[in-house]
Amino acid sequence: MKKILWVILLVLISGCSAQPAVVPPSEGSAGKSDNEIYIVSHGWHTGFVLPADDVQRRLPELEKRFGNTAYIEFGWGDEGFYQAEAVTSGLTLKAIFWPSVSVMHAVAVPVAVNEYFSGHEMAKLCLTDGELRSLVDFIEGSFYKDERGEIRRLGDGIYGDSQFYKGVGEYHLMNTCNKWTAKGLRSAGVDIFPAFKLTAGSIMKSIAKIECNTRSVP
């Protein structure tokens, strides 16, 4: 009976939204790889850190909210689990097994990334203009936009100067925060298969040997 329930659950989840989707590589992806971005691991969760200007030009709301910050970190995840003051086993199980609304988390990083995230495992990647453009396309597409094309602000974020926003797609076992990071990397031209990247460790291991990558392990 338990096996039957597991099969039913997996079938239901497999039919759920897999948004946000990987963005096809932009034209002009060849060229100098002189755009630095970072992937930061928080142990159970990963996120992107990008120069603020590159994203604020697309999403003016972020400039209004964070001003002249040097970088912004972005993460995607389950609405209830991500915003919870205390993480419980019930929240964890619900986030994994029950498709739920997603949110985007944006954090202002006003200083050097390795200084702000001191003690975290992180990697620096160097992207071409086209690769960066595709990654920004993916991140922009992860924010829900209303009929006026504006993103929707929710509550305060969980650390530093941060903010939650309504996201695109449903969070569930087969569409996790780390799979979101993998889809972003795939959008940026990284040879990675998002379907198999469900943990922070699997993400960091996959990018450990990429050229222009400098890895920091606490």
Description:
The chain is of the alpha+beta class and 218 residues long. The protein has one domain. It is 34% helix and 25% strand. It has an 8-stranded antiparallel β-sheet with strand order 6-7-4-3-2-1-5-8. A hairpin with a 4-residue loop joins strand 1 (35-41) and strand 2 (46-51). Helix 7 (129-141) runs antiparallel to helix 8 (177-187). The longest helix has 13 residues, at 2-14. The chain is globular.
Topology:
Blueprint: H1 2-14, E1 35-41, E2 46-51, H2 52-56, H3 60-66, E3 71-78, H4 79-83, H5 89-97, E4 100-109, H6 113-116, E5 121-127, H7 129-141, E6 153-156, E7 162-171, H8 177-187, H9 200-206, E8 214-216
Antiparallel strand pairs: 1-2, 1-5, 2-3, 3-4, 4-7, 5-8, 6-7
Helix pairs in contact: 7-8
Q: Give the % helix.
A: 25-40%
For this structure, the quaternary state is single chain
Overall structural domain count: 1
Which whole number gives the mean pLDDT? 83
Q: Note the overall shape.
A: globular
Give the spatial strand order of the biggest sheet: 6-7-4-3-2-1-5-8
Based on CA atoms alone, the radius of gyration comes out at 17 Å
- Strand segment count: 8
% residues in beta strands: 25-35%
* Series of secondary-structure elements, N-terminal to C-terminal: HEEHHEHHEHEHEEHHE
Decide which structural class fits the backbone: alpha+beta
State the separation between the terminal residues, measured CA to CA: 45 Å
Give the biggest sheet.
8 strands, antiparallel
Low-confidence stretches: 1-16, 90-95
Number of helices: 9
